[in-house]
Amino acid sequence: MKATIIGAGIAGLSLALCLEKQGLDYELFEAAEDLKALGAGIVLSPNVLYIFDQLGIKEEIESSGAVLSEFQIVSSQRKSLQRITNETQLHGKSYCAVGIHRAVLQEILLSKLQARKLYLGYKLARLEPSPLSLEFANGITIQPDCVVGADGIHSQVRQSLEERGQLRYSGQSCWRGLCQLEAADLPEHVALEFWGNGDRFGIVPIDKGQLYWYAPALCPAGQKDASSQRAKANLLELYQDYHPMIKRVLEATPDAAIMRHDLHDLTPLSRWHNQTTVLIGDAAHATTPNLGQGAAQGIEDAWVLSHKLKNAASLEQAFTEFETQRRPKAKQVVQLSWQIGQLANLKNPLLTMLRNQAFRLSPKSWTIKQRKRLYFVPASAELIQNA
What we know:
Blueprint: E1 2-6, H1 10-21, E2 25-30, E3 41-44, H2 46-54, H3 58-64, E4 66-68, E5 70-75, E6 80-85, E7 88-90, E8 93-95, E9 97-101, H4 102-111, E10 118-120, E11 124-129, E12 132-136, E13 141-142, E14 146-149, H5 156-160, E15 167-180, E16 190-195, E17 200-207, E18 210-218, H6 228-238, H7 244-251, E19 259-266, E20 277-279, H8 282-285, H9 294-311, H10 315-344, H11 349-361, H12 364-375, H13 380-385
Parallel strand pairs: 1-2, 1-14, 2-10, 5-16, 14-20
Antiparallel strand pairs: 3-9, 4-9, 5-6, 7-8, 11-12, 12-13, 15-18, 15-19, 16-17, 17-18
């Protein structure tokens, strides 16, 4: 049995690597003609680091990015609201988070795969469920054994399952960027998120002297900046009352390095699979980025699905067990991320004052407990036992 993966994003690449680890065959199709170094930064949480450790790439990931021992939520003037340790125990070993450039992560994952199994320039045009066949925009048609849709929030594979889902706009647009800046008042292994009224600003080290930043703010859907220069000017005005560090970060960012996207998630689907096709990652359960778990949940999908494909008696059993195991956590992540986004971007000054006070007073033990639940990943032995 060969798994045909549609989409060579982080979820698709991770699944390919997990399948190789299990000794299973696969082929990976990507619409883009080449995998360019796109995107900004990403935070890989302890659940991801655990999986990458099992795949033998954890040390390379850590040495290629910045290990983040702590996450701090602060007010717009950098008064502490909450300090969260990223160190988490998983199956007897300690894991932290890592900030890394998305392109660097992509390169590491690609370097571990067999190049002959990656097909670029294959945009899916049509999926026929019975008998199963895939037609690509370049005119090539194949008859795969099974299909894994890892093709993102606008998944073509999902539409073939007649599970279109609804994109839900969060009310927030998010600017992102990268800059080179070494600041004495920015701890090397700490990520910061500043909370204001209707907007936030996050700063994440991803390499020595290199920072990834993100700036979600309340906006009507579909707004665009006239140019990258205009985007920077707008951001400097929007965050002018924030701590001076924000201005330094924005001024150190090349105009061309600023990107903007509206933040959406996906309403729950009634199912993620049929007898021969299954969805993973954003194709199944796209989330807003407020928990830093978008890519992480796709990687967890890859980890669990590869074990189910290895150990189940049939495809239908593998897909059913995969969805049964993964759906509750993915649903929880989508819901919690949405709630945090609405809370973090409150605009009413009285409500933001109450919110900040509540975060200052929240027990550390409660935060640790929630993080342990969020970062838990089943070990291989547990997945095999439950197969």
